[in-house]
Amino acid sequence: MKKLLSLSLLLALSACNSPNTPSPLNTDSPAKHSNYYYQRESLFQQLPTSNKDIIFLGDSISDGNEWFELYQNPYYKNRGISGDTTQGILDRLETITRGKPQKIFLLIGINDLGRGGKIEDVLKNLEAISLKIKQDSPKTSLYIQSLLPVSNELKLFPGHTALWEQIPTFNKQIQSIAEKMGNTYIDIYTPFVDINTKKLNLQYSNDGLHLLGAGYLRWQEIIKPYLK
């Protein structure tokens, strides 16, 4: 019996080492992005864009909206990924640009900064995103949106919401990059800020960072002139 078990084990090991046997995945290797990022990106690769499409590209704030239902238009497409960063956008941009979409509305950067990233790196990546779109899809109009205000009053997402006083300064720098690159800059900060607290108006959010339904309707109003 022992000899039979030893022979079985030897055969199994030989099969594992066979050149025709696929190597197992290394699940211990660190991933550059989250599992959710790769899940969404694999879906987007199966859903090609076209030159009629209006793309909403960004992080959880874009991801959280049902753009097609909001506008009742199948060409309005959600390409947001919760937790995404400017580097994440760069890494998956080819999936977007290969369809030569009509317009891209980009909202990105708060996760970079909320995790301790530098504004200089955000600006550098925004410039690289703009350049890649110009190179790969020159007829696509890129709209770079300001960061939204945040609020630390609810004591959630402390890394992000602690930045509430700095966001206006960040937005000025983002606007400068947008103008330098010949893109349209859209101020979505001002309509969402509470004039008394200078933070995100909590009629639009229940966590100080993400938007409620009323917030998405407000956003829809702000960008309406750019959708014509």
What does it look like?
With 228 residues, the protein is an alpha/beta fold. The protein has a single domain (35-227), classed as SGNH hydrolase (Rossmann fold, 3-Layer(aba) Sandwich). It has ten helices and five strands, in the order ααβααβαβααβααβα. A five-stranded parallel β-sheet has the order 2-1-3-4-5. Helix 5 packs parallel to helix 7 and helix 7 runs parallel beside helix 9. The radius of gyration is 22 Å and the shape is globular. It comes from Muribacter muris. Pfam families: Lipase_GDSL_2. One of its GO terms (molecular function) is phosphatidylcholine lysophospholipase activity.
- Which term fits the overall shape? globular
User: Percent of residues in beta strands?
Assistant: 5-15%
Helix and strand sequence: HHEHHEHEHHEHHEH
- Individual helix count: 10
Helical percentage: 40-55%
Write the CATH homologous superfamily: SGNH hydrolase
User: What is Rg?
Assistant: 22 Å
Instruction: Look at the structure and give the mean pLDDT.
Output: 90
Largest sheet properties: 5 strands, parallel
Helix and strand content put the structural class at alpha/beta
Question: What's the level 1 CATH class?
Answer: Alpha Beta
Low-confidence stretches: 1-29
Separation, N- and C-terminal Cα atoms = 79 Å
**CATH-derived architecture:** 3-Layer(aba) Sandwich
As for the number of domains, it is 1
**CATH overall fold name:** Rossmann fold
What is the strand arrangement across the widest sheet?
Answer: 2-1-3-4-5
How many strands? 5
Organism: Muribacter muris
Protein name: Sialate O-acetylesterase
GO molecular function, one term: phosphatidylcholine lysophospholipase activity
Pfam families: Lipase_GDSL_2
